[in-house]
Amino acid sequence: MKVLLVIHGLDCVGGTERVTTHIANLLAEKGNQVSVLSLTSVDSSPAFTLNDDVTLLQPKRTYSSLRKHLHQLWQVIQVRKQFDVVIASDTQLCLYVWPLKLLSKAKVVAWEHFNSQVVTRFGSRWFGRKIAARLFDKIVVLTEQDKVSWQDKYQPHPPVSVIPNPCAMTVRSSIEAASIKRVVSVGRFTSQKGFDFLVRAWSLIPATTREQWQLHIVGPTGSASKEVALLIAKLQLEDQVIIAGASHNMEQVYDSSAIYVMSSRYEGFGMTLVEAMARGLAVIAYNCPMGPKEIIDDQFGIIVPAESIELLAQSLSALIEDNQLRSHYQQQALIGVKRYVPSKIAAQWQQEIQTLY
After folding, report:
1. How far apart are CA 255 and CA 336, in angstroms?
2. DSSP assignment, residue 283?
């Protein structure tokens, strides 16, 4: 099968770019002829490594404003007869991919990387979803919850399939009894990630419980960086809550921690939760839309009512104080993450592609 994945730009370091690269490589390993069309990167190296048998297609020059959008549309139209399946890796890109339904025999798939409930009405992603719901051959979402949301909001004509993201992190075979006393949370410093909730929850844990522990927040700066830093200072937690910045060695970040917390207001899936489970951390997450509850599944970690600072503090206290409980959830995490191993996700993608014909 000749497969094309279309993405904004493969030279950016982000979750969509990483998982698109991973799926392209996995589909190529399944024997497909795979190409990636990177619409905005010009003669640049991809941020994540593509296999040698995956072809990277890029524009030769940049354009601005309207000409940029017309050129991106033209790039897609130019390859209209070369592929059996075209996957728009972001529903915004449906705005560029839809002509293939009229100009070629290729089957077209919309791949939702985000939470369909969080969208600006009449924005580009909203329009992209509307187009996909009427013209495309299949919609792929990351969670069962988002499948229901998609069907309710957009009434799609094509089928909606659920394929979670694969875990690129190596899964540990076992967890050794450790004396690590660190809690970690990972993500860009934006309001979405709810680090303000997490810092406030940390302040509610009795001082005697957390006195030997630290909370590390790891991720690039963002719109909420200053707010979180000021909150840490206001609550006099500078010695215990560490803003660690972005890291290029996430395996080391997880391996130096015992507990992972996801305090997000919303998620598209919750990839860092899966990564933490792969490295054997006990995990806690808010029951936010969408992803964490399905990943934890009421047995592989602790799920907390969304935005409840008090209950988040209680759950953290329980894991910090009780070594047995913490060890139990560390072992459960290693069991739960097996649902996201690359071989299983690749098989799901291959099956979905084959059912198009």
Report:
1. 18
2. E
Place of tokens 């499948």: 147
Greater model confidence, 331 or 123? 331
Residue 227: closest CA among 202, 263, 199:
199
What CA dihedral angle connects 6, 11, 13 and 15, to 10 degrees?
A: 10
CB of 267 closer than 8 Å to CB of 288? yes
Q: What is the pLDDT of residues 198-230, one digit of tens each?
A: 999 999 999 999 999 999 999 999 999 999 999
Rounded CA-CA distance 334/89 in Å is 29
Q: Are 222 and 191 in contact (CB under 8 A)?
A: no
Which DSSP state fits 136? -
Distance (Å, rounded) from C-alpha 95 to C-alpha 88?
9
Q: Indicate the pLDDT class of residue 117, thresholds 50, 70 and 90.
A: confident
Query: Which stretch of 71-75, 96-100, 182-186 has the lowest confidence by average pLDDT?
Result: 71-75
Mean pLDDT of the chain: 92
Burial state string for 197-222 with b = 16 or more CB within 10 A and e = fewer than 16? bbbbbbbebeeeebeebbbbbbbeeb
- pTM beyond 0.85: the answer is yes
3-state secondary structure of 190: coil
Q: Are 25 and 57 in contact, with CB atoms under 8 Å apart?
A: no
The full set of domains in the chain, from first to last, is: 2-166+341-354 (3.40.50.2000), 182-340 (3.40.50.2000)
Dihedral angle of Cα 143, 147, 153, 158, to the nearest 10 degrees:
140
Beta strands in 246-309 (DSSP E): 259-262, 282-286, 302-304
Among candidates 158, 156, 162, which has minimal Cα distance to 137? 158
Closest residue by Cα to residue 176 from 259, 274, 255, 277:
255
- Structural tokens at position 25: 């490589």
Q: What is the pLDDT of residues 249-285, one digit of tens each?
A: 999 999 999 999 999 999 999 999 999 999 999 999 9
Do 129 and 149 meet the contact criterion of CB atoms below 8 Å apart? no
Q: Which two tokens stand for residue 317?
A: 């206290």
